[in-house]
Design a protein that fits this description.
The protein has 376 residues and is α+β, with helices and mostly antiparallel strands. The chain has helices at 3-10, 88-96, 111-135, 141-147, 150-167, 174-187, 191-200, 250-255, 262-273, 275-288, 335-346, 358-365; strands spanning 26-40, 47-52, 58-64, 69-81, 220-223, 245-248. Helix 5 packs across helix 6. The longest helix is centred in the first third of the chain and has 25 residues, at 111-135. The structure holds zinc ion (ZN).
Amino acid sequence: MQLHFLITSEQRATGAMFMESLNDTVLAFIYPSDGARTFHTFFCPPMRIIALNAEGQVVFDEVIDKWKWVRLPVCRYVIETGPKVEYRPFMNTILSLSPELPQVGALEPGTGMDQLLFSLLAEAVADMRRIREVHRNKIDPKIQRWHFEAWERGQIVSSAGFILDFSEACDLPNGAVKLSYSVLKAEEPYIDEIVAASVGGIPWRHEFPSHCMRCGKRASWRPILTPASRSPVEILWRYQRPENAIPICHHCTATLRILREESVRIELGWGLWGPRFEALWQWHRARRNKSLPTNWDLYTHPLWPREYGGESWETGSGALKFAEPRPPHQVLRSEQQMQTLRRVLYSRLFRGRQPNEAPLQKLVDFRHDISKGDSR
Ligand SMILES: [Zn+2]
């Protein structure tokens, strides 16, 4: 099951997904007709959901603080808000609104909903089948740790949780339900990291441009920082992040002594990724010094603690909504970072014709359509 699919397919939807807290926000969903509706709260902060019928009477009013599907009775209006918000003052405004607004944020009852649910469940059950093939009947935590990548393990536990959520409402294969319990139990010590990896640790290299940032020839993305030996496998995905890599060809690797000199790699990474590399680097050092903030919430900030970056992708945020791997487009580089980049890349001469900065420019201009993940 691809929980990842749920994330990306909903990323552009409005609703409360990926908001850290609804605080005083009131989201109102207005429908042209009455109907039973199903909302979900995956990736949403704790919220109060209120449903009203066409006459404005409250037919549902609950605080939902877990990720789940919520079945609403026949209603016309749905309100999502912070758990303690007093929504009544807004009621008249909401009720007077035109019912011609687009329908976003909720899944309509009927075929669309059933199909989505069915395909998600089918994928989740397929995940459990894969697990059984690897483990036979008993989950071995050691095998789980070494056989799957951290991001896959994150998706597998999401599948397991999903199956358990539904096991009471739907008729699911008994084996899948049992296996889901054991997987969650085996992965419990690692769950924060692998769920973070299920979003931030997905592979990206095949989708990114792979031309040398110095000369433009075919290149591979080479890592900058290397993990300490004996780091647990669950954290290694952060070293595979794009922010810890630069695209550079064989020849330039040798010319610039990329493999031998960490300081050169760091300068290039710092120049290319700006505040995003700084944030990752801070995580890297804090982990080594055992000084990571104790209140780091990996569910809201899977990449690195909140205080290591700014509030946006451009300024180095490690928040969930920026966690999917993206190329260095629009990263906010300082003048110093640009100078460092140029100094390191061009201070040594090229053999023969001197290329200009076009390859570098092409790399930083490369846009990445994140919605591509939807079709997966
Ligand atoms: Zn090159």
